[in-house]
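Entry type: protein chain
Record version: 2
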Amino acid sequence: MRKRDILTPFGITMGFIMIMLAIVSKSGTSEGAGLFLDISSIFIVIGGLIASMLITFKFEQIKLARKVLSEAFHKHDQQLPQLIALFVHLSERARREGLLALENELEEVDDPFIKKGILLAVDGIEPEVIKDILEAEIIAVEDRHYQGRALLEKAGEYAPSWGMIGTLVGLVLMLNSLQDPAGLGPSMAVALLTTLYGTVLANLVFIPMASKLESKTEEEVFMKQIIIEGVIGVQSGQNPRILEEKLSAFLSNEERAKQLEEEPADFMEESIHEA
């Protein structure tokens, strides 16, 4: 299940607010913030950045930009303890009723990767083949994520460069108007603001978002590796408690402690139902 990740917009907003507070505190008035808005600098940085991206990437990759940006503002709410509990439940039912009974369980499973693995197990595919198929899908996922993340990483590289280009343009204009003191200020503004815009976009937006997507990819791959272990365990008829212990090795110390606290309660509940 996808949920909105509030940390990304909060972090970006907070960064811009801190910059604005620094400007206002130094200028003494809120009108001083207007000095940091220059249309020419925006054209150079944003326009140049878009041009560089169009040259670097194919049109099919450019179309992914909206989806990539959306991923940075969402998160997948898949918790490891719940995942372990799911495979323990599937293992218990498979041992009682056989692997074919798991097809009915898949109606309540949202993750297509889990569904694919269980269906392969139900079809009687060899464990080594199942592992190869699912690991090939993981490689494909990593490749797709890398291509999407490359958009943000390149934008993070190009933005400061175009800021520097804007600085050079501003310096040329300033040197060309040394005889006119009135023109020095606007030319210097272009020279400095383009560097500011490019640096802020790179270090507050593009590079942090690319890093977040990379960490999400690592987390997703980690979860998929656990799913593979769970699928193989269910197919091989592994004892549910042994499977639970095996998958629990991936839990953090805090999650394992919490699991141990809940297990006595679960045991008592099972005893009541059995009675």
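Comment: The first helix runs from residue 7 to 27.
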